[in-house]
Amino acid sequence: MKQHKKGLTLWLAAILLLLAGALLTGSPGRTETVQEAMRDAVLHDVNRISLLGWKAVNPGLISAFLVTAILLLASALIRIFVIPRFRYMPGKLQLLLEEAVGLFDRMAKGSSPHRFGFVGTYIFGAGCFIFVGTLFELLGLQAITTHGHAVTLPAPLSDINAAIALGTLSYLVIVSGGIAGNGVKGIGKSLKEFSLPISMSFRLFGALLSGLLVTELVYYYVSLSFVLPVVVGVLFTLLHALIQTYVLTMLTALYYGEVSEPDHKPKKAKARRS
Amino acid sequence: MPLNIDWQQILLHWLNLAILTGGLYFLLYKPVKQFMAKREEYYRSLEQQAQEKLAQAQQLQDQAQAKLDGADEEIRQARAKAQQSVQQSAEEQLARVQVQAQQILTHARAEAEHDREEILRSSQRELRRLATEATKRLALQQDPFEQFLDLAEEGAGHDEKR
User: Fold this and answer.
1) pLDDT digits (tens, 9 = 90+) for A149-201
2) Would you state the pLDDT for residue A25?
3) pLDDT average, residue stretch B103-132
4) How many angstroms away from the CA of A43 is the closest CA of chain B?
5) Please, which contacts does A213-221 make with residues 24 or more away whose CB atoms are closer than 8 Å?
6) Helix (H, G, I), strand (E, B) or coil at A92
7) In a mutagenesis test of the B interface, which of A40, A72, A130, A166 is the best target, namely the one with the most B β-carbons within 10 Å?
8) In a 3-state reduction of DSSP, which class is residue A143?
């Protein structure tokens, strides 16, 4: 009991010390107003980061590359150290990996039973990117802008370019499914859904941007930086990481299945004639 | 461009997504799916083996049942055959006994007939002998009147003695 009390006292003292330190040291001074911060969060026209000295790009692109690097590194480690040790009676990590792969595989098979190999692969990649990319903002990794300021790297999809890239790529995948399944007719079928790339892109951008703006707003004021980020930062981020992953992958798989489904109408007509 | 849309960055994002999708496919998606398929195949083969063994067991059971049914039929047939054989044997024995009895009866009758004839012949011979003897006596003996008298005398003497 004495040890418990001692531990509790130490923990409380550490919290109070950290709080006092945070309040007393203060911030280094604001480099931008809240309006500027919000505007930059949407447009990314001020705080840009140099891409290996070649070009100044949005922080979202750097985040996207980092997310890809993290995912590929983790996958390589899993491939080398975990997958060869897979057993028929799975452990916790194996179960998690199998469930992640199985989830997208089942989604592809369920939505597009005629042709699911490629779309399964794509939605797995896209799903991982959206989920990990959205959670990436929780890491709070810092990068130096071209102006020499430090900025927190945002979620890749809060950058309009990343959202457009993912939306249009998903649409291209859907079109490819239409061509593979129905040839020229498939292109027609896919083009009927011409609003898809816009809706997919801006849905992602809007969802992720709203999260980013709320987070920016919360962290802009020191007084809001206690307790509240636990709810706003972690729970909301986790929740819409799941939701956005599910929405985009499900929509892509559904439309892919719809346009790649072989057309049976001519056969029926022939059968009726005969 | 409005909203700071940059086509070059969009292409870079595409490149990034293509690398990520390909990398994840080869490093994670494909091996995990292959393992899952392998496990599924393993359990399917186990199930198939179990089904085959079950079918074999069922077949063996059917065969055993058929044999059991066959054995019952064989036993029934054997029993019927045995009964038939016993009945036939009993009938044969009865017939044989009847024949023997008939023979014994015939023999007894013949013997009886023979005895009767023998007795008849011996009695006839006796009668003939008696008749002959009586005739001889009659022919050789004294006068019947004298005989009568002798007898009568014998009879009177007998009464006196008493």
Assistant:
1) 888 888 888 888 898 899 889 989 988 888 888 888 878 777 777 787 788 87
2) 74
3) 88
4) 6
5) A213/A38, A213/A41, A213/A42, A215/A137, A216/A37, A216/A38, A216/A41, A217/A34, A217/A38, A220/A34, A220/A37
6) helix
7) A72
8) strand
Q: What is the ipTM of this complex?
A: 0.82
Closest chain B CA to residue A126:
B21
Contact check, Cβ <8 Å, B27/A98? no
Beta carbons of A22 and A222 less than 8 angstroms apart: yes
CB contact under 8 A, B9 and A168: no
State the burial class of residue B87 (Cβ atoms within 10 Å of its Cβ: 0-12, 13-18, 19+).
exposed
Contact B28 A75 (CB under 8 A): yes
Answer whether B17 sits within 8 Å of A61, measured CB to CB.
no
For residues A237 and A133, give the distance between their C-alpha atoms in angstroms, rounded to a whole number.
10
Contact at CB, A101 and B28, closer than 8 angstroms: yes
Judging by beta carbons within 10 Å of its beta carbon (0-12, 13-18, 19+), is residue A259 exposed, middle or buried?
buried
Q: Where are the domains of chain A?
A: 37-262
| Residues of chain A found within 8 Å of residue B6, distances taken between Cβ atoms | 57-58, 161
Residues of A in contact with B14 (CB under 8 A): 165, 168-169
Q: What is the pLDDT of residues B38-47, one digit of tens each?
A: 999 999 999 9
